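User: Please check token order:
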Amino acid sequence: MLIMKKIFELMYWYYNHGKREIMTEKNFTDNCFDLLRIIAAVMVMLSHSFRHFNIVKPKWLFFLCDGSIGVIIFFTISGFLVMSSYERCLFKGESVWHFWWKRIIRIYPGFLLCFLFVSILNLMEGINIFQISYFKYFATDWLYPRGGAFGNGYSNGVFWTLKCELIFYFLVPFIYKCMKKMSMIKNICLIVAFWIFACFDAQIIEMMHQYRYIRLFFKDSSIEFFMYEFLLGSFFYFYRNKFLCSLPSKRMLFSYGTLWFIWYCINRYINILPRIGMMHNVFVSIATPSLVIGMAYGFGKIRFNYDISYGIFLYHMPIIYVFLKMGFDNISGMICVWPVVILMAFCSTILEKKAIKYLA
């Protein structure tokens, strides 16, 4: 609670000393979320590459090969932009079903293409993908993505994030209504409550293994441990006219970015603080969303016709497994993975855009 208070006090200090102006539609879209998503996807890819190729992460890369930071960036941006999308639907008089449909067609074309790719890999491994049990496995993961392997085949461990995203999308109308009604202080208290819950994720997961009724309550879902990151993104959207006049300033980004980097290094490399948070380092993750939003508007408008971040996120794990099974389990093999992933992501993005255009 004290950490959150200090963070928002710092933001408000800059806000009260900055230029106050209303966020217009034009400067609201002048952001570099596309670039940040690609950076986040590369972070996750690098993190998994070093881990699965059993190569020690070089310390000079710092957070650039820390996959948990990439996931935090994704959830923060999702909270910010999805709330914006839902509010636009409301202003246009569109139904919540229309909003959910737009979200679904954003996720599923790429997801199904990647699942098809994994199925082809399984077929090449000698697994009969035309049996009833495989179709059941496919249908289960289609409705509730988990990324587990079928038999001894290929898996895609990143699918769990899609499960979280789909649940977030379903909850957006309720979160929007709730956060709109509450004051800023109450919204901060709500975020802190979920953050405190995430502080004890290791203990809660252990209890889930020991007590059946707790396991049934959580139902194999990790969304509760990442809700505060999504809510922080939503929070900065709701109060964008207060924070976006100060967060993107060069003075703010340099000062806060320097403090964040020092805080990250203390938590990551200097063993003077206890490690709290098994899913994510909660001390770092609570401080990251504000820096993400500030960078999104501080670096100016950088947009891409083909946002390959989703494709990089989806395909890097299966391709890592392909290289490992082929025996390329050294640093040269790891480096070769990356251009292949980018190529697959680009091809997938082209097909996704056509599918979304057809389904929209």
